[in-house]
Amino acid sequence: MNTAPVERLHLFFATETPRALILRRVARRLYQLIGWDRDTDAFTPGQWLKKEIQIDACRLSPDGQHFLYVVTGAPYRTEATDRYTVISRPPYFTALALFPQGDFWQLGGVFLDSRTYWIAGDHATHDIIGRDDDLERVFQGEPGKGCTTGLRRVNGTPVELTPQTRRRLLGGGALDAPRSGAGDGYDTQGGKLYRRAGMDLTPMGDFSDLAFETVIAPYDTRTRSAPDAPADWHPLDGEGT
Q: How many Cα atoms within 13 Å fall on the side-chain side of residue 212?
């Protein structure tokens, strides 16, 4: 019986720019991020992660500048539980913000726009990294006069939603769900990406031969005792990040 892991590409598209992101699943606990400029079809191999990711909880911001992903089944640490949500800058996994989330039914979050996001668990879930300076987190409260969604900023003022975001949010649909396989004019087979036109497939990229390597995010400014060894503990240390 063939028990080899099935490689798969999960596609995420920015809604405001030509940016896209490929989350490549090589094995149950081995993933790689690959940046994709759809204007030029240029691909940028990024970081790897040796943990389990909940694919359907991942989100790409509308401008493609930030990626939200959920790790489950991680080794338990005091600083982070075995389940947490991370915001990074693609194509890297290194955390700008990390929210421990012990409740399996309250994982992940959404981008309301390119600079505003909401995390499940609200005030009970705290960021333990604190480097998402160019983003703003909002919180869910009770709907009321002047705030029909219940979404408010830290100072209590209502969050203004665009008509499109309001329809999608209140309609219960995913704001930026991943695409895997056919859709949006693209298709995937294993580690290969194709452009689809009807029944015709045109090869765009084959990522099957990309092997694990240690990659340090350019925005990772932590103090290091050696070029490839962070001195301060981080939940993703030893994972190529």
A: 13
Q: Hey, CA dihedral for 45, 50, 51, 55, is it positive or negative?
A: positive
Predicted local confidence at residue 235, as pLDDT: 59
Beta strands (DSSP E) in 89-169 are 95-100, 109-111, 116-119, 136-140, 151-152
Q: What SS3 state is found at 29?
A: coil
Handedness of CA 161, 140, 92, 97 (dihedral sign): positive
pLDDT, residue 143, reads 79
**Which pLDDT band holds residue 234 (cuts at 50, 70, 90)?**
low
Q: How far apart are CA 163 and CA 34, in angstroms?
A: 31
Length of the chain: 241
Task: Give 30-86 as a DSSP string.
Answer: EEEEEEEETTTTEEEEEEEE-SEE-GGG-EE-TTSS-EEEEEESPPP-SSS-SSEEE
Largest CA distance in the chain: 61
Task: Name the token pair of 24.
Answer: 């490549």
For 26-84, write each residue's pLDDT tens digit: 998 899 999 999 999 999 999 999 889 999 999 999 999 999 999 987 766 656 777 88
